[in-house]
Amino acid sequence: MAYAQWGKPLTGVEYFALENGPAPRPMKRLLNLMQEQGDIVIRENDYFGLAQRRVIPLRSPELNFSVHEMNLLFRLIQHYWGVSGKRMSNEPHEFPGWSLAKLEETIPYSVALVGDREPTLDEIGRGLELEALAEESLARNAARKNEGDRRGT
């Protein structure tokens, strides 16, 4: 959401596609490090017959966010307060970055800018104007690649 609003991510970490939704790539390593340093404890509970892992903080967080970033975080907390884990897990399935990615493939932040609305007539017209330029550019780059391939053999 931060990338969609401001063109820069909040954390800057790489996200990748897992079976149940997108996840920060360094999450397991970070949780292990925080556990080793005594910053958190991970408790396993029975949750309706399933194992639930809960992260329990053992210290206060160090918050280095701007006012705008904190406002976004508070809005997200309010939005998801009381929402079940199942519903939260299902929500990313509608996100094109996850639904189009292969398992364990990195999800580029720029996918946050992709929408699912129909283009306007002006956007369609501009796309048609750019179509010839795009085809020309692709053909030129393909020719360069083929030329480079022939030199390497």
Question: Can you walk through the features of this model?
Answer:
This protein has 153 residues and is α+β, with helices and mostly antiparallel strands. The protein folds into 2 domains: 2-113, no CATH class; 117-153. Helix content is 46%, strand content 17%. It is built from 6 helices and 5 strands, in the order αββαββαααβα. The chain has helices at 2-6, 27-36, 67-80, 85-90, 96-99, 121-151, and strands at residues 15-18, 21-24, 40-47, 50-57, 106-107. The strands form 2 sheets. It has a 3-stranded antiparallel β-sheet. A two-stranded antiparallel sheet has the order 3-4. β3 (40-47) and β4 form a beta hairpin. 3% of the residues are buried. The mean pLDDT is 88.
Q: Could you list some keywords that capture this structure?
A:
alpha+beta; 2 domains; three-stranded antiparallel sheet; two-stranded antiparallel ribbon; 5 strands
Helix- and strand-based class?
alpha+beta
Q: DSSP strand (E) fraction?
A: 15-25%
How far apart the termini lie comes to: 47 Å
Average pLDDT value? 88
The structural domain count equals 2
SSE pattern, N- to C-terminal? HEEHEEHHHEH
Which range best describes the helical content: under 10%, 10-25%, 25-40%, 40-55%, 55-70% or over 70%? 40-55%
Strand order of the largest sheet: 2-1-5
Count of alpha and pi helical runs: 6
Low-confidence stretches: none
Radius of gyration: 22 Å
* DSSP summary, beta strand count: 5
**Inertia-based shape:** elongated
How would you characterize the largest beta sheet? Answer: 3 strands, antiparallel
